[in-house]
């Protein structure tokens, strides 16, 4: 223990970093063990399970640097996961399914057609693989104190933050009433079926939208609400936008999160202004698309995650110019403001520190 503590202090000292310059200690220790980095949060994949035809479950063991960037996660929040695919770094946000306070992270990732990261992990994830971690966020969390009567609703891979909440409540010994409604294409596509069937204190209702006999027929509506819990103190829903809209229509006190990009109002015509990615010395003519897409078309590789204005991974400093946020409609006019380039379009000449 003394030796380990001394090693951490020596490797973490500014002197060691100076002597290891110009790349720093992490560039050398990662050669021995990729997760042995003090400045970069990473995790080793310690288990891989493919229990449905369209998903893969990864169990990750984060390194100590994850705690330094806010690794204390609340059930329902997401983490930013970075992987390299064909020489290019990609960042996506995923909601772990494990209960609060666990030392590991459990990610169940739905395989989406055309999804670069989800397809890669579904096909190639293996124990020993190392991924990057970049922060924790999201406000889709359980309130304190806990509501007495809780209705959970999820669709597809929206089950993961709900599973984190359910597991947390069970671990806490919650003695209130809990009902969980989950929608999947077929019984084979429904993640965590066996665990949910055995979960104490949780009433589970399945609905299958393509084939299979579940407890519920069709899609969420008044009949499903009556069968589940019509007088819940709080309703938590995660899934496609159509499901969230249906739940909001028939329920009150709804907490929602969607994993589908919102419909954004892209301008019919580009501004015709100049977009300068100042740090790279690249200028382009605005073509009307979000700044992230224009940067990528110009050969740049800025970090990004959700690509829908949720995770803030793509945030960059706008040094001058005017941009509009496509999800909120907010217009940024002041110099030296941070903007999310995945959902921001120029309104005239714009300079971005990228």
Automatic annotation (TrEMBL):
Per the UniProt record, one Pfam family is: FAD_binding_6
Q: Which domain of life is it from?
A: Bacteria
Gene3D superfamilies, per database record: 3.10.20.30, Nucleotide-binding domain of ferredoxin-NADP reductase (FNR) module (3.40.50.80), Translation factors (2.40.30.10)
Q: Which UniProt keywords apply?
A: 2Fe-2S, FAD, Flavoprotein, Iron, Iron-sulfur, Metal-binding, Oxidoreductase
InterPro entries from the UniProt entry: 2Fe-2S_ferredoxin-like_sf, 2Fe-2S_ferredoxin-type, Beta-grasp_dom_sf, Cbr1-like_FAD-bd_dom, FAD-bd_FR_type, FNR_nucleotide-bd, MRET, OxRdtase_FAD/NAD-bd
Q: Give all residue intervals belonging to the FAD-binding FR-type domain.
A: 38-143
Which PANTHER family did the record assign? NADH OXIDOREDUCTASE HCR (PTHR47354)
Q: Which cofactor does it need?
A: FAD
Q: What is the protein name stated in its UniProt record?
A: Ferredoxin reductase
GO MF assignments: 2 iron, 2 sulfur cluster binding; metal ion binding; oxidoreductase activity
| CDD domains per UniProt | fer2 (cd00207), FNR_iron_sulfur_binding_2 (cd06216)
């Amino acid at each position: 223990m003394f030796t380990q503590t001394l090693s951490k202090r020596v490797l973490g000292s500014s002197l060691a970093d100076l002597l290891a310059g110009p790349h720093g200690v992490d560039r050398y220790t990662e050669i021995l063990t990729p997760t042995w980095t003090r400045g970069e949060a990473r995790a080793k994949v310690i288990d891989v399970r493919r229990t449905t035809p369209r998903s893969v479950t990864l169990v990750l063991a984060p390194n100590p640097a994850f705690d330094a960037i806010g690794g204390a996660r609340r059930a329902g929040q997401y983490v930013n996961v970075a992987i390299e695919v064909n020489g290019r770094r990609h960042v996506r946000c995923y909601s772990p399914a494990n209960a609060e306070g666990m030392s590991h992270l459990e990610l169940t990732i739905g395989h989406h057609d055309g999804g670069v990261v989800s397809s890669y992990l579904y096909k190639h994830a293996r124990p020993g693989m190392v991924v990057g971690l970049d922060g924790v966020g999201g406000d889709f969390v359980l309130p304190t104190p806990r509501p007495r009567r809780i209705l959970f609703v999820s669709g597809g891979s929206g089950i993961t933050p709900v599973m984190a909440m359910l597991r947390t409540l069970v671990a806490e010994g919650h003695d209130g009433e809990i009902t969980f409604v989950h929608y999947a294409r077929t019984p084979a596509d429904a993640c965590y079926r066996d665990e949910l069937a055995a979960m104490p204190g949780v009433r589970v209702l399945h609905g299958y939208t393509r084939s299979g006999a579940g407890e519920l027929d069709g899609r969420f509506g008044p009949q499903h609400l009556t069968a589940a819990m019509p007088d819940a103190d709080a309703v938590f829903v995660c899934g496609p936008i159509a499901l969230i809209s249906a739940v909001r229509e028939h329920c009150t006190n709804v907490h929602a999160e969607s994993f589908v990009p919102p419909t954004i109002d892209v301008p019919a015509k580009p501004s015709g202004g100049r977009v300068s990615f100042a740090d790279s010395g690249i200028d382009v003519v605005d073509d009307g698309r979000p700044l992230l897409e224009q940067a990528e078309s110009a050969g740049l590789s800025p970090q990004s995650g959700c690509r829908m204005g949720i995770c803030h991974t793509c945030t960059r400093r706008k040094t001058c110019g005017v941009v509009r946020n496509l999800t909120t409609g907010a217009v940024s006019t002041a110099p030296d403001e941070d903007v999310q380039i995945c959902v921001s379009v120029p309104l005239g000449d714009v300079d971005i520190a990228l």
